[in-house]
Request: fold
Amino acid sequence: MVRTRFAPSPTGFLHIGGARTALFSWAYARRHGGRFILRIEDTDIERSTPEAVQAILDGMRWLGLDYDEGPYFQTQRLYRYKEVIQQMLEAGTAYHCYMLPEALERMRASQMAAGLKPKYDGTWRPEPGKRLPTPPSGVQPVVRFKNPSTGEVTWDDLVKGRITFSNEELDDFVIARADGTPTYNFCVVVDDWDMGITHVIRGDDHVSNTPRQINLFRALGAKVPQYAHLSMILGEDGQKLSKRHGAVSVMQYDQEGYLPEAVLNYLARLGWSHGDAEIFDMAQFCQWFDLDHITPSAAQFNKQKLNWLNAHYLKQADNARLAANVEKRLEARGIDTKNGPDLSAAIDLYKARVSTLNELADAVEYFYKQIHPAPELLEPYLTEEIRPVLRALAEKLATCDWSQTALHALIQQVVTENGLKFPKVAMPLRVMVTGSTQSPSVDAVLAILGREETLRRLGCYL
Ligand code: GLU
Reply:
């Protein structure tokens, strides 16, 4: 049974890289009928905040990445880490180290001065036949892991291929601090062990932790999971993705008007591919997803492609769903849509012409607020020649049938009667009712805007 997990540290929002890691872990579990676990790695008390926990949960919910277990919190598992540390001390796979921080610092400095890589010198490491120093009184020891001192750690990374580290490069790292709190690499291993994780899918910033973690698994007699390290995501300028590149928080994409399905589809293709398939939903993704088609090289963010996908999903989305969303966006701008024309109809008219929900809100705003087209916008179209024609049209508009077809026929009739071309009439009409020279067909706009409001807007100029 496949068991994967997403294990964010709650030190900030859920960013794009984290969301992709979560998505891949989730999809892998779904693909194999396994289970996906959410674990909050909050042992770094100073940097973890409840707001960040909430931001992660919100981001997961918005994306629809449902988890089968959790969220587990490491801070609620401290008793368990203590228990395992005790077992390791008893088994001799971990030991107390009484070296004071100042002595440790001096040792490091002299190693570096001698051109060596700083490394714990093993003073307190028990070895057969070795006499350990007498523990100084009043010093709280740290607990160090007794890392194998020779040999290598090798694993076949499911993304990056075979990776080998020499044990000599690895320290007897601290697994519990002097105050008893467990350290990061240790907690991850105990959790992955206890939670039966079979596949660890995470960012490749953790590659250097992996040999330490594998050694810990072995020392615990636990089965080592398989590892898949995902390459990082670069910004459009080829630099590591950061705040400089604009939105990196998943929820900011919501604010900017992206649909979750577009963001998910976009993330799915960020470093993974299935032939040349670009547009697919998550049900399809979960059938296709595998680790073999993840590229080991870094993926580059491309906003244009995200916009393209978002435009696609907006076009397909249900009008009522978009209306509920756009209503909130307009409300935030102080625009009430309740007493105006049908928002779903307005949205239907524009949703194929925009890339984001904010653009959609911009596009339909004029239906619900006072518009004041700039004189220089209107003047070129509202000529003295056309003004009487429009007045006559307005009179007919007061009584005609109010449907798009009827409106189109009426405008056409006025155009023909006066020997004009359609835009001659449609353009000034458009500017007067929409405030812009660009819109879908003016009869469609009028049909939605309604008779009363149309006549009111025309009345301001005619
Ligand atoms: N908590 C780690 C992070 O947020 C992830 C640890 C892991 O996936 O093993 O980077």
